[in-house]
Amino acid sequence: MTQILLYDTTLRDGTQREDISLSCDDKLAIAFKLDQIGIHYIEAGWPGSNPKDAEFFQKVRNIGLKQAKVVAFGSTRRKHSRCETDKNLQALVAADTPAVALVGKSWDFQVETVLDTTLDENLSMISESIAFMRSHGTETIFDAEHFFDGYKANPDYALAALLAAAESGADFLALCDTNGGSLPWEIESIVKEVAARVPTRLGIHVHNDSGCAVANTLAAVRGGCVQIQGTINGYGERVGNADLTSIIPGLQLKMGYKVVSEEQLRGLTAISRYVAEIANLKHDRQQPYTGESAFAHKGGIHAAAVLKAAGSYQHIEPELVGNAMRTVISELSGRGNLITLCQNRGLEISQEESERVLHLLKKLEHQGYAFDAAEASVDLLLHRARAGYAPPFELIDFTVLAQERRGRGALSEATVKARIGQEEKLTAAEGSGPVDALSKALHQALNQHYPQLDKIQLTDYKVRILNTDKGTAAITRVLINFNDGEKSWTTVGASPNIIEASWRALSDSMEYALLGSTTL
């Protein structure tokens, strides 16, 4: 079967997403990871456009890539100029990468309206630029911008642009759905027509504006494309590019192509989350294949079925892409969800205990709790239901004061009285807000007995107002996330009183930390 080549443009096209800005070191770190998971080409930016990309092309030579070819990106020469004096092309030569990608127009409307030049001059720009880069011994990919729109409008000219690049020595012709508006059957049909008329190997580069980027890429492979351009997590301009974390398993597990090793495929979830972390973005829980919810089962019927046969509600084994099955606990849960969760946690729980937990859970959700994203709270429910469980501390009472003080501004004070074993502790603390003051006071009460809590840090605090028609008497749901340097966990609280809701989530987080749990 034909080898499909993976071309990643996270470091160039991916950074055109509005909320992404990568440093040179960020880009080097991601490039190293891309090489590890089997990417064949890494497009890294415009060497002539900014100092950061120029620095990257210097440093990337020393990071020890084992497989991937680094690609410098640029455009064809300017109209009515010479390649030898074109600064963009000169910068590509100076970057000294194994391969370059040159973008050029293939839609007559774009040539005449945007470039403001003649159709013949555009063909000369393509052919001369490709020939110039090939004369320097550099593998050259021609990105035919707006190709599918151009082909629909004027197929003869769109093909002429491809042939100009092919006849000048282009190694690949990447067909671009730049506006992202084409549909899978259009892509497959047009690629087949092009493959029948152009001998050069074809690539595909699509955007996701119509939500079809992954489907369009797979359709292009069916049509004859052998080079796949995309980004990790589909990051890119506007609504993004084709998502390689969906395309790679689609090619390998669904279509039968061998594109990476089994070990590299198992690294897909890790790199998906790694790139999100480096880009300082929250990883999408609903990401196909690699998302935290991709193999999560919430409905009771589903959970009961996967206990008997995992494939009953899963399209692949999650371990193939480095992910894992999860059972989500909610008011929709049945005993199967709890049984699966307990098995995953290594807990033994009786039928009576599980029924009690399920009843309590549904009662709490009716009161405003939500346990989908608060698995630490679910763990606590399970532990508390077991015979002989003794909580590490018990709240007696707490007080919170919020004041405006001259010269100091708004200030909060909290006192906490807690029982730890046979001893009662009364502590007080100031904080920048009520929750901060409560957290500090609780830490003070517990730290002498549980010094391991010193390394616990609150990392996120979310508040959601549920029944907004009740105004200030509405039920408030609070989610609090903590991290101990090795793992993170989330607990939930709900109440018409935001301080009480916060306390419930806060104290549960401390109790969970003292379980010594390795979950989450």
Automatic annotation (TrEMBL):
One Pfam family in the UniProt entry: HMGL-like
Pathway(s) the chain acts in: Amino-acid biosynthesis; L-isoleucine biosynthesis; 2-oxobutanoate from pyruvate: step 1/3
PROSITE patterns: AIPM_HOMOCIT_SYNTH_1, AIPM_HOMOCIT_SYNTH_2, PYR_CT
Residue ranges of domain Pyruvate carboxyltransferase in the record: 4-266
EC nos: 2.3.3.21
EC class: transferase
Transmembrane segments: none
Catalytic activity: pyruvate + acetyl-CoA + H2O = (3R)-citramalate + CoA + H(+)
Keywords, in A-Z order: Amino-acid biosynthesis, Branched-chain amino acid biosynthesis, Isoleucine biosynthesis, Leucine biosynthesis, Transferase
GO biological process, one term: isoleucine biosynthetic process
GO molecular function: (R)-citramalate synthase activity; 2-isopropylmalate synthase activity
Family per record: Belongs to the alpha-IPM synthase/homocitrate synthase family.
Protein name from the UniProt record: Citramalate synthase
Organism: Candidatus Methylumidiphilus alinenensis
